[in-house]
Design a protein that fits this description.
The complex is a heterodimer.
Chain A: H1 3-23, H2 35-61, E1 64-67, E2 70-73, H3 77-83, H4 86-119, H5 124-136, H6 139-149, H7 156-163, H8 183-208, H9 212-220, H10 225-236, H11 238-253, H12 257-263, H13 276-285, H14 290-329
Antiparallel strand pairs in A: 1-2
Helix pairs in contact in A: 1-2, 2-14, 4-8, 4-11, 5-8, 6-12, 8-11, 11-14, 13-14
Chain B: H1 6-12, H2 16-21, H3 29-57, H4 80-88, H5 91-122, H6 128-137, H7 143-156, H8 164-167, H9 174-185, H10 189-197, H11 202-213, H12 215-231, H13 234-239, H14 248-258, H15 263-295
Helix pairs in contact in B: 3-15, 4-15, 5-9, 5-12, 10-11, 12-15, 14-15
Amino acid sequence: MSTATATASASATGSPGASEQSQQRPTRKRRGSPVWYAFLGPPLLLLLVFVAYPTVETFRESLFRRVGTREEFVGLSQYSRLLTNPIFWKALGNTALLGVAFLVIVIPLSAVLASMLNRLRRGATPLKVIYFLPQLTSSVAVALIFNYVFQPDWGLLNGLLHRVGVDSVPLWLADPRYDFTGSRAAVTILAVWAGLGYYMLVVLAGLQSIPVDLYEAAAIDGANAFQIWRRITLPSLRPTFVFLVMTGTVDAMSRFSDLWTLGGPGGAPARSLQSVVMLMFQTGFESHDTSMAAAIAVVFFILVLGITLIAFRALLAREFREIRGSRKAR
Amino acid sequence: MNMTSVDSRTRARRSPIAWLTGSTRRYSVAGQMAIVVVLSVGALAMVLPFAWMIATSLSRQANFTMPRIPTLWPPDPSLFNYRVASTNLPIFRYYLNSIVVVGASTLGYLFFSALTGYAFAKGRFRGKQILFVAFLATLLIPFETRMIPLYALMSDLHLNDSLVALILPFLVGGFGTFLMRQHIASIPDDLIDAARQDGAGEFLIFRRIVLPLCKPALAALAIVNVIWRWNDILWPLLVISNRNLYTVTQGLAIAGRGQGIFTGVALATAALAIVPVMVVYLILQRHIIRGITTSGMKG
């Protein structure tokens, strides 16, 4: 079914609702009319076909093995194969390491820069536009440019290092070691560069939603700038940080495009850049082992869901009440 | 940086700087200068890679030799790399594909988000809560979890290698439904009831009253969705293998990886994919930044 037919069917079923209304009194009771099911029908069908079915199918496929043209039930053996595979653990480790490194750098950095932006009297808008520029560029394009920025001999970064007199420049993307100048460090720099603008915008929105009265009250009580920042700004930003950590963790878990552009599905060099999704992609569409790829997809799903729920429970339960409270107040 | 006490604050209200900047808070000139310097250094770091990309893409000799110290002005400015890049890949066709895919999927997404949002905000029917939870639950299922069977499904439907495959799975989403429901819930019931009294059907009310009132929320949703769809690479990589059906992002990914050794041409290809998007961004920047801020999503 295409968009056009879905739209047409929704509008077609909308009209009987209108004619029906002439017989019934137009009261609140009419809200119970079947027109709502006509509204929800087509989108629900799309969700069933393109979300619910494939999700269930992923779980099912992970329990089967393809033998020629038929499928054979193998229980959890795909999972035991997966969980004993060092390549999987390496991909999971890379994903976690890159995610943590990214968040640990980007959140404080964006908090500092957004606070500065917030205090700026003039010219905040052009700066916002500039900081957001990389975020709007696709990760593929960003990765492509950074492939050259990190080129060891003449890339922009090492070129600038040469310029300031550094002789032994890092190899960056060519160096698969766990190192502050290796491939993982390079893609972390890339991610911070690309993501900073978005994180700054969110922190800035958080800063601007802090009521001015709080600052005025603190100033009247004689608090100094640091005390105000420590006692008012930081606690007020807690929901913002929680939001960023949660969404940032899920984004980091599903990292794919930039790493794929730089290292291919295998995450070259030496699988140092292979993320979980890249391994899933490689297993499913290069090795054509769909059952194993499905098992990776299920583990990935459980991890993302687990992170979301744990984060929600540990951090958000309290904030949620506060956010709702502040929404009502506004 | 700016240790203001109550006294200095009240005094600052009449200080010339505060008067000039129209501010009621004290902003020291030195503090402002320091902020400007730090933020400008950051902004320079944001722009520098793009500037270097453009400079390199304009240099023919960049394809075989690069200066050890990077320059922002090509020694031999020419459009040679751009001619090669646009001969190598049908970039205008890719733009057309991207526009069709992003346009159709965004229009559909906005329509279904508003429609379902309206039903969940203002409708009264059995199973509303359960259906709403079901719509929201899709938010918890990452696309990557279902992409393998989705690919098989597209094959079965003979939709692989068609732009429809890039549109159809992205017409409905829990996020859009949720955002629109929140927004439509704030429209007064009286407005809708009045229209019902006048004999308007629900779809007419939706089209004539609800949709116009949702413009800001729809704009925010549209911006996020356009960015998301435009930059998607994982799904196009799976379902599109016909070179003529690539989106801009996919064309760039595959071409860029292929011509890696020709720096000038590769960066000209990147520029062809980036610069038009940036121009649109600079024109619409106010709306885009507001859309990102209100929805909290980055697309």
